Amino acid sequence: MDISFLDSHLGEVAAVSTAALWVVSSLSFTAAGREVGSSAVNLLRSVLAVVVLCTALWLRDGSPLPEFDARHWLVLGGSGIVGLAIGDQLLFASFVTIGPRVSMLIMTLAPVFALGMAAIAMGERVALLQLAGIAVTLSGVAIVVAARSEHGESHDRREFGFGLLLALGATVCQAGGMVMAKYGMNDTDAAHAPGVLATQSARMIPAAAALIVILGLGRLAGWRLGTRVAAGHRQKRGRAAMCIVLGTAAGPVGGVMCALFAISHLEVGVATTLMALTPVLILPFAVLVEGERLTARSIAGAAVAVAGSAILALA
C-alpha cells in the first residue's frame, strides 16, 4: 500500500479505526451490561478510563492532570460532560426503552447535526462531493441498522415516543460533544498523539464526575437506571469485569482518542460519518458471536456504506 496515501489520509484512517474499536467496545459493554446493567457499565468504564488516562499522563509528564488553562478545561470538560456523560447515558437508556436497532437508526443523524453545528460554530464547510459521500455512507448504515430486526419488539406508543426522545437527545449530545471538542482543540497540540492524550483526559475527568452526580441523583430520585448486581457466580462477575476492561481500552480510551485525532484532521461532519460505520463493521461479529443471520438488505447496506466511505476518502 502506498505510504504517502496513508500519510495524506490519516484523518480518515483514524475515523475508520474509531468505528472498528467501537465494535469491540460495543460487544464488550453489551456482554458486561447483561451481567451488571448498563448504568453500572457506563460508570465503571468512565472511572477506569480516568485512571488509565491520568496514569499515562503521570508517567509521561510527571502530573496526572493535563496542563490546560481555564478556558480549555471549560470547553473540553464541557464537551466530555455533554458527549461522554449525558449523551452516552441517554443512549444507554434508549437501548433499554426502544432497543438498540431503533436507537442506532436515530444515531445515524449524528453526523448531520455535527455538520450543522460545526458550520454555525466554526464556519466549517464541506465540498459537494463530500456531502454526497456523507449521504451515501449514512444511507448504507441506516439500511444495515434497519435490516437487523429484533424479534419480539413491541412498545406502547408513549414508551416508544419517550425512547425516541432519549435517542434523539443522545444524538444531539454526541454531535455537540464532538464539535465542542474540536473547538477546544483548535489552538492545542491535538493533531499529535500526546496532545490527544491530554485532550481526552480533560474531557474524561469532568465526564466521569458528572456521571457520578447524575447516577447519584437518579438513585435518590428512584429512577430506573438499569443497574443490577451480577447474579451469583464469581465467574460471571469476573467475565463482566474483563469485558469492562477490554471495552474501556477500545472505547473511551483508544476509540475516543482516535476520534479526537480524526476531527483534528478532518471536518467534523466527515469524521463523524466515518465513525458511524460501526453498525456495518459489527456485522461479521454479529454473525459469529450473536448467531445473527445476514440478510440481503444488510449486505446491500454494507456495500452502499463502503462506497460512500470510498467517496469520502477520495474527495
Give an overview of the whole structure:
The protein is mostly helical and 315 residues long. It has one domain (3-314). It contains 14 helices and no strands. The protein has helices at residues 3-8, 10-36, 38-61, 70-98, 100-107, 110-122, 128-147, 157-185, 193-221, 234-265, 268-275, 278-281, 283-288, 296-314. It is globular, with a radius of gyration of 19 Å. Residues 226-231 have low confidence and may be disordered.
The proportion of residues forming helix, as a percent range, comes to: over 70%
End-to-end Cα distance, whole Å, is 19 Å
Mean pLDDT: 85
Q: Percent of residues in beta strands?
A: under 5%
Low-confidence stretches: 226-231
What's this, in brief?
This protein starts with a helix and ends with a helix. The chain has helices at 3-8, 10-36, 38-61, 70-98, 100-107, 110-122, 128-147, 157-185, 193-221, 234-265, 268-275, 278-281, 283-288, 296-314.
Key words describing this protein structure:
315 residues, globular, mainly alpha, single chain, 0% strand, 14 helices
List the helices and strands and how they pair.
Elements (H helix, E strand, L loop, with lengths): L2 H6 L1 H27 L1 H24 L8 H29 L1 H8 L2 H13 L5 H20 L9 H29 L7 H29 L12 H32 L2 H8 L2 H4 L1 H6 L7 H19 L1
Helix pairs in contact: 2-3, 2-10, 2-11, 3-9, 3-10, 4-5, 4-8, 4-9, 5-7, 5-8, 6-8, 6-11, 7-11, 7-14, 9-10, 10-11
